[in-house]
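Sequence in, structure out. Go.
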Amino acid sequence: MWQQLWRQAERDPRRLLARLGLDEAAARLSEEAAAQFITRVPQGFINRMRRGDLNDPLLRQVLPVTDELAVVPGFSLDAVGDGAARKATGVIQKYQGRALLVTTGSCAVHCRYCFRRHFDYAGENAARGNWAEAVASIANDPSIDEVILSGGDPLSLLTSKLAELTDLLAQIPHIRRLRIHTRLPVVLPERVDAELLDWLRALPWPVSLVIHANHANEFDASVFEAMNALRSTGITLLNEAVLLAGVNDSVDALCALSETSFAAGVLPYYLFQLDRVQGTAHFEVSDERAAQLIAGVRARLSGYLVPRLAREIAGEASKRPL
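Output:
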């Protein structure tokens, strides 16, 4: 079922605006921006957008606009240093003890602020050669005890393909933890099917699944159902969000996000400052404003509901707390 819904995703930003009753000019739609980074939005995610609202926080995350064409100093093609941290084909190692696998270039939704929107997925895919080079790279480094499945979105792969990878990783004795970063349970919750749940239950390590939701409106009944199913497997559910101008840059929005994600069984984890990737400057919130916002959240919510505000700096040994 989820594959059919995947294929039905909206790829035409004009149709997206028409469906929401919005004017192309008023929305500042850009065909050039859409050509540089194509539009892809699942129908279920569109259903959560407010009709007639140009400032809908979900729409702002996926609509290609003229602001993306601005060339802004300090914004680059590889803001987080993925290229410099390459260890093998599709393997990135930035931090001690952890290796990230770029499992695929596919995503169910194309977020306009994506820090890998310029990434060379054709050349850097860990699945090449049935995972052989990537798995060998990890097997040959006993300092690695945590593997991170990323992309693209790893859950865009068939569960059988994921199982093929984890069966190989299970033969490496020094791996102690598995982490999966995914947006699919939020934007395409139908991906959480019986086969995926069985795979998660059978994994031989403690598993953390890190979803990505930036606004409380991303959670509807289908997402709550998906999170409940994921929790039933015994894995840990965390949420990473990005602080985005016009999307969640208010204390009210951030508190609602934390409270809603926790109600769905997902613990707030990180609130990241924007990665300064070319084409995303219009989403940036200053560090000073970010600090004010997180202080406001901290004053209002219990500590376990307050995500860690941080920024990724290329070449640093860890995320930088702010």
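Check: The radius of gyration is 19 Å. The longest strand covers residues 236-242.
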